[in-house]
Each structure stands twice: as structure tokens, then as C-alpha cells.
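Notes to self after the call with IL:
- keep both proteins in one doc
- input above output, always
- annotate only the second one for now

Protein 1:
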Amino acid sequence: MQRRTPLRAKKGLETKTPLARGKGLNDKNPIRKRSKKMTVIYKDRRAFVSKFLLDNAFCQAHWDNDCTFAACDVHEVLPRAQGGKIVGGKLNNYMAVCRNCHTKITDNPQEAHDRGFRKWSWEDKE
């Protein structure tokens, strides 16, 4: 059997053009700004969330022992991606939840549905 010799690099890697320093990634493709329409909607959303959390200061989910009981998020029972409204929908579509419970609700959609914390798009049309 013939014995192989290890490969040896003859030359280091070379670039054909030098890399320019100090240029960011957003020079050619900047992040698109939010539209005027969505800016108004999100302004209304912030006001809604503030009022909703003042009215509902405690977590309404209590998923397990990791619950902190202090609500800091507003969870949409019918997600926006499935036709839920970001603001102005039915009040029973929103829940005040703590961060731990909100994470568990979004990470476990089937169990959240079984517990009544989530609806599928075909179950509730507004």
C-alpha cells in the first residue's frame, strides 16, 4: 500500500481586492422604515397595552410554578398572523401575562390551545 504524504500549503490565502474597513452592512440595503400607517397603528397599540396592563396587573395564565404573577406582556389569543387584530379587537382576544408564561404559550401552541390560551384561525372570526 502506498503511503500518502500530508498536504502542505504552498502559499497563504490571498484576496483579489482588499477589504474596505469601516463600511457597515446597511450601506446598500438599509432596513426599511415603518410605514406611516403602521406607525399610527403601533402608537395606538402602545396606548392600548399600557391601559390594558394597568387594568390587568396580574398574570392571567399561571402556566406553571415559573409564573411571576406580574403581567408585563399582552398575549393575543388569536395570533395576528392568523387574523387577530393588533389593536381594536374583542377584549376576550387579549390576555395579560408574565414573560415566562408568554414564552411557554408561544413555544407550546397545542398545549396552550388545550388550556384555552390560544385559538386557531378557523375557530373565531371577528
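Protein 2 (the one to annotate):
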Amino acid sequence: MAKITFMGAGSTVFAKNVLGDCMLTPCLQNAHIALYDIDGKRLQESKMMLDNLNACCNKKRAKITAHLGDKNRRAALRDADFVVNAIQVGGYEPSTVIDFEIPKKYGLRQTIADTLGIGGIMRGLRTIPVMKAFADDIEAVCPNAWFLNYTNPMSLLSGYMQRHTAVKTVGLCHSVQVCAKGLLENLGLGDLQPVQWKIAGINHMAWLLEIAKDGKDLYPEIKKRAFAMNDAARKKNGKKHWDMVRYEIMRAFGYYNTESSEHTAEYHPYFIKSTHPELIAELNIPLDEYPRRCIDQIAAWEKQRNELVHNKKLKHERTHEYGSYIMEAITTDRPIEIGGNVLNRGIIPNLPANACVEVPCLVNRNGVQGCYVGELPEQLAALNRTHINVHLLTIEAAATLKKETVYHAAMMDPHTRAELTLDQIRHLVDDLIAAHGKMLPKFR
């Protein structure tokens, strides 16, 4: 019987997806599922939801236990085979609000702020200490467990765990699975599926290196349609669509990237510019998108709670999330391929060896193993390196607690350094650290 520990189990909808998938996976149906959270109310709601799902969908019945707070964390983790991480440190209030509102005072605008940018750096710095505590417990009570990290900033957190702990860690993001499908459907090419594709790079900026149907390269037709769509949309009164920024990146650099246009807009110095404010509307860039989503999700939760927590006939269909498939492959030794975030170590030779990269991975009884990709086209590697600079410096800041290194990380962020001076960046970092207070470690 496998044991699956879910950290941040108060994320009820996501817990349903990953753990519901496990309940539909034969080798995992009788697992011990240990739920851990620091919010007792949300933890209990997730327990009730999973109890309903267990009764309705799982013939073998999993054992489900709930564990509240730091004092019960080791009990949740003890003898686990798999640890799923879905925490968010600081939540919408106060942390996300701080991440957006203080940079605005400096004229620095963001869309999502969970992966890169000054908001991504702060989210990483307040999350790494919590994950370090998880790692200490895992090394003590379940040292052979695989740690499946779903929490952003993916490259920062997974890279920290891979380099500064002994925990077997893979970072997981569903943008790889949906990249080619979403691109084709938006361009009216959905009927071509299934297609062959190859993706590699870093999380949220992995590249669709190849896409073909029966050996025919689809990129020429994709580019023809994408550029025509954007040209029309950028005209006065043109019809906007949701993927304009990524199409412009593809036009400039030759390849499509995995993560959405609202994310991509803040990953580069080209789009959210005080010197060219007209681009915000022209390219349909949703500033402050993540806070809006948070507010909408909080408002919608009351209805969702009743549908999930109190539904005695709750159903589930297995999703495309990698979690259950990884557990199944390791448990049964039936190999699968996933897109995972692992340490580079030469997988992509023209990216730093100590970077966390998103690449094809083989999963079997030996765990998750990154597969050799080779060099990326140099312009793509160059764009990735602008992010990796920030990743490595933020990880170093978290490991050393040197404020100067936090400054360096922010100074290397492509969007931040395009908008602010060096003095402004230092003051912004100081203001953010002060506002976060005890949510951050003490930097020297």
C-alpha cells in the first residue's frame, strides 16, 4: 500500500484533481492519503470532499487522514512514498496584495507575479523557508519519497530543493501538456490532432521546438495564421484574442513558448513599458490579472464548497495532471514520458548546469529521469538565461540570507531593470521586505 502525503491540502479543487486521479488508478486506490495544512477549516473541508469521492469512486477505498499544523507534519509525512506540494505561503492577503501594490508605487506593473519579476522573487523567498522545513522532515521520516512540486515559482522552488536538500524532487506544471493543443485550436487547426511535438527549456518559458503531423512540419502554417491574426488584432478596433503576446514572441524569435500570454508579457522587457503604454491595450495585456483571479475565486468558493464538500454523489474523471501517472509508473514500473522540471546537468548544454530546466523525462521504477535534449537555438537559450539569472540569485539569497543578493536578483529581472533605476530597485526591495515582515526570513 502506497502512502501519499498532500502538503497544502486546503487547496480543495486541486486536491480533488490529483488525489481523485489517484483514486481512479488501480495501484493507488488502497493508498493511505495523508492531508496536511495549517488552516483547520480548509483542511476539514478537503477531508470531507475526499471522503465523499472515496465512497463514490473508489471500490478499494483509500485510507484518508488529516494532519493540522507544524506539530503534526512529521506524522503526515512518516513513511510516505510520494509527497505532493501545493502550498501558497502568504495567500492573497496580505502577500499577493503586497507583491502588486508596492511595485505600483514605483510605476512597476505586473500581470501574474508568481514566477518571475519582483513578485515572483518575493514569493520564492517567503516559500523556500517553509519548503526547507518540509525537506528536513522528509529527510528524517520518509527519505526515499518523491517530492512532486506543483507550487510556483516552479524553477526557484524546485531548483532549491534539488540543489540544497537531499529530497528527490521534480517540478510539475500542466502548461507542457496543453501547449500544442491550445495553439492549434486557437488557430483553427484543432482537427490536425494528434500531432508530434517536442518541448524543452525552463518552466513557463519552455519552447515548442518541433510540431508535426505525419512527418510534415506544421510551423509554417502556424506562423502564417498566427501572424495574420495578430496583424488584424493590432489594428484600430481589431478583434483581440488571448494569445497575442506569445504570437509576437514567436514572430521575433521563431518559436512558440509554453506559458500563457498574460504570464509571458511580464517575463520580458518588451511589452509592459511606461514609455509605450499603448502596447497594453494593443496586445491585450491584462495588468493585475492575478489579484482579480484571486478575488473571483474567493467569491466563488462558497458555491464551490457546497458542490464539492457536501456532495454525497461527487464524481471524478482522471485529469491530465502528471501526479497520479508518475506514482503509477514508479509503483508498477510501467514507463511513461512527462515534461518535468529537473536539474540541468548537461541536458541542455547551452544553459547553466545548475539551472532547473523543463524537459522530457522518463519515469519508471527508478523515478523521474531527465532526457538529453541538446542545445537550444541560441536566441531561445539567451531568453531562458535571462530568467535563470534571477532563479540562481534568488536561490542564493534564500540560502545565504544576504540582502545584497536579493538586490542582485531584482536587478537581473528583465522587466524590473527595464523600468527602474538601480537605486529604485534597492528601495523597492527594502519596501517589500519591510512590508512582508515576519513572512520573510531576516536578511543581513
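Annotation: The radius of gyration is 22 Å. The chain has a mean pLDDT of 97.
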